[in-house]
Write a structure and sequence with these properties.
CATH topology of the largest domain: TIM Barrel
Order of helices and strands: EEEEEEHEHEHEEHEEHEEEEEEHEH
Number of domains: 2
Largest sheet: 10 strands, mixed
Low-confidence stretches: 1-22, 24-54, 235-240, 338-344
Distance between the termini: 29 Å
Strand content: 15-25%
Radius of gyration: 21 Å
Protein backbone atom coordinates (compact mmCIF):
# COMPACT_ATOMS: atom_id res chain seq x y z
CA UNK A 1 0.00 0.00 0.00
CA UNK A 2 1.64 3.22 -1.12
CA UNK A 3 1.85 6.38 1.01
CA UNK A 4 -0.41 8.19 -1.49
CA UNK A 5 -3.18 5.63 -1.25
CA UNK A 6 -6.43 6.57 0.40
CA UNK A 7 -8.27 4.21 2.73
CA UNK A 8 -11.77 3.48 1.50
CA UNK A 9 -14.40 0.92 2.33
CA UNK A 10 -14.06 -2.27 0.30
CA UNK A 11 -17.46 -3.09 -1.32
CA UNK A 12 -16.68 -6.81 -1.18
CA UNK A 13 -15.57 -7.37 2.39
CA UNK A 14 -16.74 -4.07 3.92
CA UNK A 15 -13.23 -3.59 5.17
CA UNK A 16 -10.75 -1.06 3.87
CA UNK A 17 -9.16 -1.26 0.46
CA UNK A 18 -7.15 1.14 -1.70
CA UNK A 19 -8.33 3.67 -4.28
CA UNK A 20 -6.52 3.26 -7.61
CA UNK A 21 -6.94 5.23 -10.82
CA UNK A 22 -7.73 8.92 -11.22
CA UNK A 23 -10.12 8.89 -14.18
CA UNK A 24 -12.03 5.79 -13.11
CA UNK A 25 -11.33 5.26 -9.41
CA UNK A 26 -11.60 1.65 -8.35
CA UNK A 27 -11.73 0.38 -4.78
CA UNK A 28 -9.79 -2.83 -4.39
CA UNK A 29 -8.81 -4.91 -1.42
CA UNK A 30 -5.76 -6.97 -2.47
CA UNK A 31 -5.57 -8.85 0.82
CA UNK A 32 -9.26 -9.73 0.69
CA UNK A 33 -9.98 -10.54 -2.97
CA UNK A 34 -13.56 -11.27 -2.08
CA UNK A 35 -12.82 -13.63 0.78
CA UNK A 36 -14.28 -11.41 3.47
CA UNK A 37 -11.35 -10.01 5.43
CA UNK A 38 -10.84 -6.57 6.90
CA UNK A 39 -7.46 -4.94 6.50
CA UNK A 40 -6.24 -3.29 9.70
CA UNK A 41 -3.38 -0.87 9.16
CA UNK A 42 -0.52 -0.46 11.61
CA UNK A 43 -1.53 2.16 14.18
CA UNK A 44 -4.40 3.18 11.92
CA UNK A 45 -2.02 4.99 9.49
CA UNK A 46 -1.06 4.43 5.87
CA UNK A 47 2.16 2.52 5.56
CA UNK A 48 4.36 0.77 3.02
CA UNK A 49 4.60 -2.17 5.38
CA UNK A 50 2.11 -4.98 5.42
CA UNK A 51 -0.96 -4.56 7.65
CA UNK A 52 -0.63 -5.68 11.26
CA UNK A 53 -3.25 -8.36 10.64
CA UNK A 54 -6.59 -8.98 8.98
CA UNK A 55 -9.78 -9.29 11.02
CA UNK A 56 -12.17 -11.98 9.95
CA UNK A 57 -15.51 -10.70 8.73
CA UNK A 58 -17.66 -13.30 10.50
CA UNK A 59 -20.89 -12.20 8.83
CA UNK A 60 -19.53 -13.07 5.39
CA UNK A 61 -19.23 -16.73 6.45
CA UNK A 62 -22.85 -17.17 7.53
CA UNK A 63 -25.60 -18.48 5.27
CA UNK A 64 -27.11 -15.72 3.07
CA UNK A 65 -29.76 -13.62 4.77
CA UNK A 66 -28.86 -14.70 8.32
CA UNK A 67 -28.23 -11.85 10.77
CA UNK A 68 -25.32 -11.82 13.19
CA UNK A 69 -25.99 -10.61 16.74
CA UNK A 70 -23.47 -10.36 19.58
CA UNK A 71 -24.25 -10.85 23.26
CA UNK A 72 -23.10 -7.76 25.14
CA UNK A 73 -22.49 -7.20 28.87
CA UNK A 74 -21.87 -4.01 30.82
CA UNK A 75 -18.81 -3.64 33.07
CA UNK A 76 -18.28 -0.85 35.54
CA UNK A 77 -14.82 -0.74 37.10
CA UNK A 78 -15.76 -3.12 39.88
CA UNK A 79 -18.73 -1.04 41.06
CA UNK A 80 -20.12 -4.18 42.69
CA UNK A 81 -17.07 -4.35 44.95
CA UNK A 82 -15.75 -7.51 43.31
CA UNK A 83 -12.58 -8.13 41.36
CA UNK A 84 -13.25 -8.70 37.67
CA UNK A 85 -11.07 -9.10 34.62
CA UNK A 86 -12.94 -6.14 33.13
CA UNK A 87 -12.43 -3.69 35.98
CA UNK A 88 -10.61 -1.40 33.59
CA UNK A 89 -13.81 -0.99 31.58
CA UNK A 90 -16.56 1.60 32.14
CA UNK A 91 -19.46 0.62 29.90
CA UNK A 92 -21.56 3.71 30.58
CA UNK A 93 -18.79 5.87 29.08
CA UNK A 94 -19.91 6.97 25.62
CA UNK A 95 -16.34 6.60 24.32
CA UNK A 96 -16.26 2.93 25.32
CA UNK A 97 -19.68 2.32 23.77
CA UNK A 98 -18.82 4.02 20.48
CA UNK A 99 -15.56 2.10 20.16
CA UNK A 100 -17.26 -1.22 20.85
CA UNK A 101 -20.07 -0.52 18.40
CA UNK A 102 -17.60 0.50 15.70
CA UNK A 103 -15.50 -2.60 16.34
CA UNK A 104 -18.55 -4.87 16.14
CA UNK A 105 -19.77 -3.19 12.98
CA UNK A 106 -16.37 -3.66 11.36
CA UNK A 107 -16.57 -7.46 11.64
CA UNK A 108 -20.08 -7.64 10.21
CA UNK A 109 -22.19 -7.73 13.38
CA UNK A 110 -25.78 -6.57 12.79
CA UNK A 111 -26.74 -5.88 16.39
CA UNK A 112 -26.45 -6.67 20.08
CA UNK A 113 -28.29 -8.81 22.62
CA UNK A 114 -27.92 -6.92 25.89
CA UNK A 115 -27.56 -8.81 29.18
CA UNK A 116 -29.86 -6.53 31.20
CA UNK A 117 -30.44 -6.31 34.95
CA UNK A 118 -33.46 -3.99 35.11
CA UNK A 119 -33.57 -0.28 35.84
CA UNK A 120 -35.48 0.19 39.08
CA UNK A 121 -33.39 -0.94 40.82
CA UNK A 122 -30.52 -1.68 38.46
CA UNK A 123 -28.83 -4.65 40.13
CA UNK A 124 -25.76 -4.30 37.90
CA UNK A 125 -25.67 -0.53 38.08
CA UNK A 126 -25.45 1.28 35.74
CA UNK A 127 -26.35 -1.33 33.10
CA UNK A 128 -29.48 0.51 32.03
CA UNK A 129 -27.62 3.73 31.29
CA UNK A 130 -25.07 1.78 29.25
CA UNK A 131 -27.89 0.01 27.38
CA UNK A 132 -29.42 3.34 26.39
CA UNK A 133 -26.06 4.55 25.08
CA UNK A 134 -25.55 1.29 23.18
CA UNK A 135 -28.99 1.48 21.58
CA UNK A 136 -28.42 5.03 20.29
CA UNK A 137 -24.86 4.34 19.09
CA UNK A 138 -26.06 1.20 17.30
CA UNK A 139 -28.87 3.07 15.54
CA UNK A 140 -26.35 5.52 14.11
CA UNK A 141 -24.69 2.63 12.25
CA UNK A 142 -27.90 0.88 11.26
CA UNK A 143 -27.47 -1.80 13.92
CA UNK A 144 -30.18 -3.25 16.13
CA UNK A 145 -30.45 -4.47 19.71
CA UNK A 146 -32.70 -6.51 21.99
CA UNK A 147 -32.94 -7.29 25.70
CA UNK A 148 -31.82 -10.51 27.36
CA UNK A 149 -33.59 -10.24 30.70
CA UNK A 150 -31.08 -11.70 33.14
CA UNK A 151 -32.36 -13.44 36.27
CA UNK A 152 -30.31 -10.84 38.14
CA UNK A 153 -33.12 -8.41 37.40
CA UNK A 154 -35.36 -10.12 39.97
CA UNK A 155 -33.64 -12.90 41.94
CA UNK A 156 -32.41 -10.54 44.70
CA UNK A 157 -35.72 -8.69 44.98
CA UNK A 158 -38.05 -9.21 47.97
CA UNK A 159 -40.89 -9.98 45.53
CA UNK A 160 -39.50 -11.61 42.39
CA UNK A 161 -42.72 -11.57 40.39
CA UNK A 162 -43.25 -7.89 41.08
CA UNK A 163 -39.66 -7.11 40.12
CA UNK A 164 -40.11 -8.97 36.82
CA UNK A 165 -43.35 -7.12 36.16
CA UNK A 166 -41.70 -3.75 36.78
CA UNK A 167 -38.78 -4.68 34.51
CA UNK A 168 -41.13 -5.70 31.69
CA UNK A 169 -43.14 -2.50 31.98
CA UNK A 170 -39.91 -0.54 31.65
CA UNK A 171 -38.78 -2.54 28.60
CA UNK A 172 -42.14 -1.95 26.91
CA UNK A 173 -42.01 1.78 27.60
CA UNK A 174 -38.31 2.50 27.07
CA UNK A 175 -36.87 0.07 24.55
CA UNK A 176 -39.48 -1.68 22.42
CA UNK A 177 -40.65 1.59 20.76
CA UNK A 178 -37.11 2.32 19.55
CA UNK A 179 -36.83 1.86 15.80
CA UNK A 180 -33.82 -0.45 16.03
CA UNK A 181 -35.23 -2.87 18.61
CA UNK A 182 -34.90 -6.38 17.10
CA UNK A 183 -38.07 -8.09 15.92
CA UNK A 184 -39.02 -11.36 14.30
CA UNK A 185 -42.25 -11.38 12.29
CA UNK A 186 -42.94 -7.86 13.60
CA UNK A 187 -42.82 -9.01 17.23
CA UNK A 188 -40.15 -7.72 19.64
CA UNK A 189 -37.70 -10.33 20.96
CA UNK A 190 -37.12 -11.04 24.64
CA UNK A 191 -34.44 -13.51 25.76
CA UNK A 192 -34.48 -15.15 29.19
CA UNK A 193 -31.29 -16.05 30.98
CA UNK A 194 -30.95 -18.16 34.12
CA UNK A 195 -34.63 -17.96 35.02
CA UNK A 196 -35.03 -21.62 35.99
CA UNK A 197 -32.17 -21.42 38.48
CA UNK A 198 -33.81 -18.36 40.02
CA UNK A 199 -37.18 -20.08 40.40
CA UNK A 200 -38.97 -18.16 37.62
CA UNK A 201 -41.38 -19.97 35.29
CA UNK A 202 -40.59 -18.80 31.76
CA UNK A 203 -43.52 -20.80 30.34
CA UNK A 204 -46.05 -18.83 32.37
CA UNK A 205 -44.27 -15.61 31.48
CA UNK A 206 -44.44 -16.38 27.76
CA UNK A 207 -48.13 -17.26 28.01
CA UNK A 208 -48.84 -13.91 29.70
CA UNK A 209 -46.79 -11.92 27.16
CA UNK A 210 -47.95 -13.19 23.76
CA UNK A 211 -46.94 -9.97 22.02
CA UNK A 212 -43.25 -10.89 22.51
CA UNK A 213 -41.07 -13.49 20.83
CA UNK A 214 -39.84 -15.14 24.04
CA UNK A 215 -36.69 -17.22 23.56
CA UNK A 216 -35.59 -19.76 26.18
CA UNK A 217 -32.06 -20.98 26.72
CA UNK A 218 -30.86 -24.16 24.94
CA UNK A 219 -34.29 -25.76 24.44
CA UNK A 220 -37.73 -24.36 23.78
CA UNK A 221 -40.08 -24.24 26.78
CA UNK A 222 -43.90 -24.46 26.58
CA UNK A 223 -45.48 -21.23 25.27
CA UNK A 224 -42.09 -19.85 24.19
CA UNK A 225 -41.64 -19.00 20.51
CA UNK A 226 -38.25 -20.66 20.29
CA UNK A 227 -34.82 -21.24 21.80
CA UNK A 228 -31.26 -19.99 21.55
CA UNK A 229 -27.95 -21.80 21.81
CA UNK A 230 -25.45 -20.79 24.46
CA UNK A 231 -21.87 -21.49 25.57
CA UNK A 232 -21.76 -25.17 26.42
CA UNK A 233 -18.92 -27.56 27.14
CA UNK A 234 -21.01 -30.48 28.36
CA UNK A 235 -19.33 -33.03 26.15
CA UNK A 236 -16.34 -35.27 26.63
CA UNK A 237 -14.04 -35.52 29.69
CA UNK A 238 -14.53 -33.32 32.77
CA UNK A 239 -18.10 -32.55 31.69
CA UNK A 240 -16.77 -31.39 28.35
CA UNK A 241 -14.43 -28.67 29.50
CA UNK A 242 -11.03 -29.12 27.88
CA UNK A 243 -12.73 -31.26 25.23
CA UNK A 244 -11.35 -29.94 21.92
CA UNK A 245 -14.58 -30.67 20.03
CA UNK A 246 -17.12 -29.39 22.59
CA UNK A 247 -18.46 -26.52 20.43
CA UNK A 248 -18.85 -28.81 17.44
CA UNK A 249 -20.76 -31.48 19.36
CA UNK A 250 -22.98 -29.04 21.20
CA UNK A 251 -24.01 -27.14 18.08
CA UNK A 252 -24.65 -30.36 16.19
CA UNK A 253 -26.95 -31.53 19.00
CA UNK A 254 -28.71 -28.17 19.27
CA UNK A 255 -29.41 -27.91 15.55
CA UNK A 256 -30.74 -31.47 15.40
CA UNK A 257 -33.75 -30.40 17.49
CA UNK A 258 -37.12 -29.53 15.99
CA UNK A 259 -37.81 -26.22 17.75
CA UNK A 260 -40.02 -23.96 15.65
CA UNK A 261 -37.51 -21.13 16.02
CA UNK A 262 -33.82 -21.52 16.81
CA UNK A 263 -30.99 -19.01 17.20
CA UNK A 264 -27.72 -20.98 17.02
CA UNK A 265 -24.55 -19.52 18.51
CA UNK A 266 -20.83 -19.10 18.00
CA UNK A 267 -18.59 -19.38 21.04
CA UNK A 268 -14.86 -19.59 21.45
CA UNK A 269 -13.58 -21.20 24.61
CA UNK A 270 -14.40 -20.74 28.28
CA UNK A 271 -12.43 -19.96 31.42
CA UNK A 272 -14.16 -19.21 34.74
CA UNK A 273 -10.98 -18.94 36.84
CA UNK A 274 -11.58 -16.79 39.91
CA UNK A 275 -9.17 -13.79 39.70
CA UNK A 276 -9.10 -13.71 43.51
CA UNK A 277 -8.40 -17.44 43.82
CA UNK A 278 -6.94 -18.87 40.63
CA UNK A 279 -7.14 -22.45 41.90
CA UNK A 280 -10.94 -22.33 41.84
CA UNK A 281 -13.90 -21.37 39.66
CA UNK A 282 -15.45 -17.93 40.08
CA UNK A 283 -18.85 -19.64 40.37
CA UNK A 284 -17.93 -22.80 42.29
CA UNK A 285 -15.67 -21.86 45.19
CA UNK A 286 -14.76 -25.47 46.00
CA UNK A 287 -14.07 -26.62 42.43
CA UNK A 288 -11.25 -26.14 39.98
CA UNK A 289 -11.87 -23.63 37.18
CA UNK A 290 -13.53 -24.92 34.05
CA UNK A 291 -11.35 -24.24 31.05
CA UNK A 292 -12.13 -24.97 27.42
CA UNK A 293 -9.51 -24.30 24.72
CA UNK A 294 -9.84 -21.26 22.46
CA UNK A 295 -9.81 -21.05 18.71
CA UNK A 296 -12.86 -23.29 18.26
CA UNK A 297 -15.69 -21.02 17.12
CA UNK A 298 -15.15 -22.18 13.54
CA UNK A 299 -16.55 -25.56 14.65
CA UNK A 300 -19.87 -23.92 15.51
CA UNK A 301 -19.85 -22.10 12.19
CA UNK A 302 -19.25 -25.34 10.29
CA UNK A 303 -22.27 -26.99 11.92
CA UNK A 304 -24.44 -23.91 11.28
CA UNK A 305 -23.56 -23.89 7.58
CA UNK A 306 -24.03 -27.64 7.34
CA UNK A 307 -27.52 -27.38 8.85
CA UNK A 308 -28.39 -24.55 6.45
CA UNK A 309 -27.40 -26.64 3.42
CA UNK A 310 -29.71 -29.37 4.73
CA UNK A 311 -32.64 -26.96 4.79
CA UNK A 312 -32.54 -25.69 8.38
CA UNK A 313 -33.86 -22.13 8.70
CA UNK A 314 -32.89 -19.59 11.35
CA UNK A 315 -33.13 -15.79 11.21
CA UNK A 316 -29.92 -15.03 13.11
CA UNK A 317 -26.83 -16.37 14.85
CA UNK A 318 -25.65 -15.05 18.21
CA UNK A 319 -22.02 -14.64 19.27
CA UNK A 320 -21.68 -15.82 22.88
CA UNK A 321 -20.14 -13.53 23.80
CA UNK A 322 -18.86 -10.22 22.58
CA UNK A 323 -17.41 -9.19 25.94
CA UNK A 324 -17.94 -11.56 28.89
CA UNK A 325 -14.40 -11.20 30.20
CA UNK A 326 -15.03 -13.04 33.48
CA UNK A 327 -15.87 -16.32 31.75
CA UNK A 328 -13.33 -15.88 29.00
CA UNK A 329 -15.85 -16.17 26.16
CA UNK A 330 -15.28 -12.67 24.77
CA UNK A 331 -14.51 -12.52 21.07
CA UNK A 332 -14.02 -8.75 21.00
CA UNK A 333 -10.75 -8.34 22.92
CA UNK A 334 -9.18 -11.51 21.54
CA UNK A 335 -9.60 -10.22 18.00
CA UNK A 336 -8.76 -6.57 18.52
CA UNK A 337 -5.86 -6.98 20.92
CA UNK A 338 -4.05 -8.94 18.24
CA UNK A 339 -4.68 -6.09 15.84
CA UNK A 340 -3.02 -3.62 18.16
CA UNK A 341 -6.28 -1.76 18.79
CA UNK A 342 -7.58 -0.63 22.19
CA UNK A 343 -11.23 -0.24 23.12
CA UNK A 344 -11.02 1.38 26.51
Amino acid sequence: MTPSSKCQKCPTCHGWGTVKGKRKPEIICPECRGKGYIVVLRNGRKTKRKPKMMLLNIKSQLPPGVKLWANWMGWFNGADGKKHRANICQSDDIRTIRNQVLAAHSVGIDGFVVDWYSATPDYAQPTDKATQLLAVASLALGMEFSIMLDSGAFKWAPDRNKALSVAMAYIRQKYVPMENYSKINSKPILWEFGWANAGMDVSSFARNNPDFIVLSQTSVKPNCAGSFGWVNGGWGPNNGFCAPDAPHNYMRDYLSRKDALQIPCLFDGFNDTNPNDTAHSIWYKDKAPRIMPYGQWQMCLDEINKAATQGKKFPAVQICTWNDYDEGTAIEPQVLAQAGLKLF
